[in-house]
Design goal:
With 485 residues, the chain is of the alpha+beta class. The protein is built from nine helices and four strands.
């Protein structure tokens, strides 16, 4: 009779819990926020080709050294290693979150020594041993979807960690390319400064020769010496910048700065790839940072469901069975068998506002991440527009500056000839000399800016990345994972 009552009670509890579920909606289900998508790029070429960067876009610069540096960074960069570790952490958290959806089973067993005291017999103590072996199982029925929502949130967080890894990988590759171009450009500027110094020293020797025959004054020598000293003083800062840039490149490659050397010495021989941006409507699916922001938003939406489910009763089922005997020889007799089945319902009544506070927190967190997602979308479009503008304008500026350098060099050469012939004064030569020196240095700076603008454009367009679904990306296939197992 007692057994029947127990089973009837369990059935009633389950019936009431299931019945309560029908009137409860723990939504809302996630829905991607609406975002405005531009029809075209303001700085794009309306009549140009529509394409996206290749996954190995840096190959377009035609530098074997750059290709090797990027390969090294993909395998050794510390930030990438940390991102891979975060993926492992998130995967582990997802496994932890999924555990409550499965029963928990435990086994136990062992002997115990006890004593029976007989007060009526003068405190006589009779020791005896008891042997027990048992298995217990417990399961929390997920009527309200709390555990399933927690698992969904953990999975979305794991997805976000994979998108974050792709963001870091793209940032590292872009950083290597940008720093490499900076180093080569600085070496070009250093060479320009040395050439300018050599030319200025030649002019100084000419003036001193003229002073010896009386055709030049000490003032002319002093003026040219001032120019020579200024050009010589411009060289050490460039050498310092080159050293700092190589140090920054060493950090990206995770190697000692003292071992950082570059084989290439100039930016000029590199190819300039043509970049044709795809349609704006496709950009969001090609930016891992946007997908990361959305994955975090999905996780936050699931956490709201978890917080809402905490207000409802939780039903736990437990069962245990085993054997208990005073002697091992009789442990497996029917009389030694023990078992128990139980169910319990827990309903929060007073939590001091903790449950309401947690729900408010998850809603606020969702609103925060929603704004972050919208900002990521707008930033993605803005990044492309900025990079397109920088690429186009620096190309135009470079072409114009190249003409200016040619004109300045021609003016300087004519001034030199006419000065030797005595038809112009030294001031004219000095003016054309300064103009040429400045024009050469500015041309190199513009060339650096153009190459870096191209890298920024490749980066803004997603660097050839495509969303194939983070759950389909095994950890071993991710960048930098082999060195951090």
């Amino acid at each position: 009779m007692i057994g029947r009552m127990r089973h009837s009670t369990i059935a009633a509890i389950i019936f009431l819990a299931v019945g309560s579920l029908g009137g409860c909606d723990l939504g809302p289900d996630y829905k991607r926020p609406d975002v405005a998508t531009p029809g075209g790029w303001r700085e794009g070429d309306a009549g140009g080709n529509v394409a996206w960067p290749a996954a190995d876009w840096w190959q377009g610069f035609g530098s074997a050294e750059l290709n090797g540096l990027i390969t090294t960074a993909q395998q050794a960069n510390a930030d990438l290693g940390a991102a891979v570790a975060r993926v492992k952490e998130a995967d582990a958290q997802a496994r932890i979150a999924g555990a409550p959806l499965l029963p928990s089973i435990e086994a136990s067993g062992g002997p115990s020594t006890q004593r029976i005291v007989f007060p009526t017999s003068g405190g006589l103590q009779v020791p005896y041993s008891e042997y027990t072996v048992g298995v217990s199982a417990s399961y929390q029925v997920d009527f309200w979807g709390k555990n399933a929502a927690a698992l969904s949130a953990a999975k979305s967080t794991a997805h976000a960690s994979r998108y974050d890894l792709q963001v870091v990988a793209l940032t590292v590759v872009s950083g290597v390319a940008t720093t490499y171009f900076e180093a080569l450009g600085l070496q070009d500027r250093l060479q320009v400064a040395r050439d300018n110094l050599a030319n200025s020293e030649d002019t100084l020797r000419l003036i001193r020769e003229q002073a010896q025959v009386g055709t030049a004054m000490e003032l002319n020598i002093a003026q040219q010496e001032t120019i020579v000293a200024g050009l010589r003083a411009a060289i050490p800062p460039l050498q310092r910048q080159i050293s700092q840039t190589l140090d920054a490149l060493a950090i990206l490659l995770n190697r000692p700065p003292s071992n950082m050397r570059l084989a290439a010495q100039s930016l000029t021989p590199l190819s300039v790839p043509v970049v044709a941006p795809g349609l704006p409507s496709e950009l969001l699916a090609r930016r891992p940072d946007v997908r990361e922001a959305e994955a975090q938003l999905v996780a936050a939406n699931a956490n709201i469901k978890v917080a809402r489910a905490a207000f409802f009763p939780s039903l736990s089922l437990t069962a245990s069975g085993g054997i208990e005997s005073l002697a091992l020889s009789g442990a497996f007799s029917p009389a030694s068998t023990i078992y128990a089945i139980a169910a319990s319902v827990t309903q929060p009544i007073f939590e001091g506002g903790a449950l309401k506070g947690q729900l408010a927190y998850t809603k606020g967190r969702y609103e925060e991440l929603l704004q972050n997602y919208r900002k990521a979308v707008i930033s993605a479009f803005s990044n492309v527009e900025d990079a397109l503008a920088a690429t186009r304008r620096t190309a135009e500026q470079q072409a114009s500056q190249a003409v200016a350098v040619a004109k300045a060099r021609r003016a300087y050469e004519l001034a030199q000839l006419q000065y030797r012939a005595g038809s112009v004064d030294l001031l004219t030569v000095l003016n054309t000399e300064t103009t040429l020196f400045s024009a050469n240095d500015l041309l190199v700076q513009i060339r650096i800016a153009h190459m870096q603008a191209l890298v920024s454009l490749f980066n803004a367009l997603g660097g050839g990345w495509q969303d194939s679904g983070p759950q389909g990306i095994p950890l071993a296939a991710l960048p930098n994972s082999k060195g951090h197992q």
